[in-house]
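Work Package 4 report. The design task specified in the project plan requires that, given a folded chain encoded as structure tokens, an amino acid be chosen for each position. We show below one input record used in the internal validation round.
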């Protein structure tokens, strides 16, 4: 007897092959037949009704490290058909880590990874991954985070590590990889990752390389003037440490970015990247609004400096020539109740509303909110054509960079996968459906060493999605980023339906996946 049989489907297998008609049979968490399904009883029969059946989608870059445990239904991803999330991104997460290191990052990154109460208690990567077993509607795979291991060994020191400190950090990376992590991540805009030089990153990638992992990076810069230099550093790290490299949220001007990838691959580098299908980015306000020296020592030290009149005087020239124009920074999330009314407004408008200069407004806002301020960063140097061309590259895979904090979050966490399929496949015909599904499934499974996922194949794990290619669409907007997508009718994770008939079933069959 089968557990689940899906009949009457358009099979899109995840490999990029043309769709064909058939069915899928599932037993004991595995796919046992694809295409022609042998006769047999089933506990559940799904009539696909000519809808598409494909592998579950893999989100290659998302900030669900804590929120997926706090909200195990996780509807933002569930309604889009995401069955696996790659977490531990940007060099910031919560294992391997002491309670002190976790506490720092829970505050510093609260506007990105959230800070839910009652979630915690692990130390190692293995213990953290085990928390997801049977506790959510989706799987996770994990990247050992650079910033976390650096704080464990060096605290927030702005210097190169000693030889002993480097060995201690390598040991933590090796232990995380042995526990099943799929790679090593950095976030070179964030504290303390930004303090590391190229040699440190090479040395910390060596244990990841020895275990068959990937180097994943939020690069030093994505700005047009410096992005080529940043990509060259990524390639140098991959070459010296001997491992594949992957660039997170690789957004910008296609004429500039794509030749950098093609040049790297033509030189023999195994380089890939992910993007989300939106023009705007999203990050913590401090990263784009303050110079590095103000943030030395962490949150409490930064808040104290921002309170001081002498600090503000030193920042006058900085605020007069900002990296991002204040009309391009939109407040997405704050924690102080008095500032909630400002969510959805740009810094320029919010400062005027409070009768302040942008610089003074930013300082006061960060102090009141203890640095927990999230902004959407609108960009003026890229357009829709760049987004379309970048997603069409064969080395591309889908990543939402989803952030689930704030009253006006970026829509990408609730809409990216539906938007790829609805807007860019159905409406704009940027690429065939089968190829887009490959970018969302097998391309990611291959990159993250998830060898039994990402394809509809006999013997593979039964992560399966059923969706209507004519109705799938995103609804989240910059004005209301929490609207759920539509068009996905069924989601099966490890052989158990977590969404059926467009409604959550209450099942929690997700797992902490380990590198294979």
């Amino acid at each position: 007897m089968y557990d689940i049989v899906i009949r009457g489907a358009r099979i899109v297998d995840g490999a990029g092959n043309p769709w064909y008609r058939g069915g899928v049979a599932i037993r004991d968490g595995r796919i046992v037949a694809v295409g022609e399904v042998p006769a047999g009883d089933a506990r559940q029969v799904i009539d696909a009704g000519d809808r598409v059946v494909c592998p579950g989608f893999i989100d290659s870059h998302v900030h669900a490290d804590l929120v997926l445990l706090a909200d195990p239904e996780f509807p933002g991803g569930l309604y889009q058909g995401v069955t696996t999330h790659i977490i531990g991104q940007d060099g910031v997460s919560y294992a391997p880590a002491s309670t002190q290191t976790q506490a720092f990052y829970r505050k510093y990154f609260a506007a990105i990874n959230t800070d839910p109460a009652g979630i915690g208690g692990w130390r190692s990567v293995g213990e953290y991954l085990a928390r997801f077993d049977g506790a959510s509607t989706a799987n996770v795979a994990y990247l050992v985070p650079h910033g976390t291991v650096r704080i464990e060994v060096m605290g927030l020191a702005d210097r190169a590590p000693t030889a002993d400190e480097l060995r201690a950090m390598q040991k933590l990376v090796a232990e995380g990889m042995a526990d099943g992590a799929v790679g090593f991540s950095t976030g070179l805009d964030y504290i303390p990752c930004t303090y590391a030089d190229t040699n440190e990153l090479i040395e910390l990638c060596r244990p990841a390389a020895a275990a068959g992992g990937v180097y994943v990076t939020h690069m030093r810069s994505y700005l047009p003037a410096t992005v080529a230099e940043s990509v060259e550093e990524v390639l140098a790290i991959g070459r010296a440490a001997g491992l594949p490299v992957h660039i997170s949220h690789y957004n910008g001007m296609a004429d500039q970015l794509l030749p950098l990838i093609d040049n790297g691959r033509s030189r023999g580098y195994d380089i890939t990247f992910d993007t989300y299908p939106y023009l705007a980015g999203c990050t913590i306000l401090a990263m784009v609004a303050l110079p590095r020296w103000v943030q030395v020592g962490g949150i409490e030290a930064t808040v104290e400096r921002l309170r001081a009149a002498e600090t503000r005087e030193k920042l006058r020239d900085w605020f007069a020539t900002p990296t991002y124009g204040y009309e391009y920074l939109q407040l997405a999330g704050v924690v102080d109740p008095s500032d909630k009314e400002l969510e959805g407004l740009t810094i320029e408008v919010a400062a005027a509303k409070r009768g302040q200069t942008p610089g003074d407004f930013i300082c006061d806002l960060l102090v009141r909110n203890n640095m927990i301020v999230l902004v959407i960063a609108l960009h003026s140097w890229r357009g829709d054509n760049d987004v379309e061309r970048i997603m069409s590259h064969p080395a591309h895979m889908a990543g939402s960079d989803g952030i689930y904090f704030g009253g006006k979050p970026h829509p990408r966490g609730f809409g990216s996968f539906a938007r790829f399929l609805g807007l860019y496949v159905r409406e704009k015909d940027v690429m065939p459906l089968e190829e887009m599904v490959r970018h969302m499934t097998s391309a990611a499974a291959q990159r993250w060493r998830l060898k039994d996922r990402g394809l509809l194949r006999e013997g593979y794990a039964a992560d399966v999605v059923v969706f209507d290619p004519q109705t799938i669409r995103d609804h989240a907007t910059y004005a209301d980023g929490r609207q759920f997508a539509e068009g996905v009718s069924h989601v099966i994770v490890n052989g158990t339906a977590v969404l059926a008939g467009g409604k959550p079933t209450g099942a929690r069959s997700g797992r902490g996946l380990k590198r294979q």
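The chain has 20 helices and 20 strands. Validation will be extended to a larger panel in the next phase.
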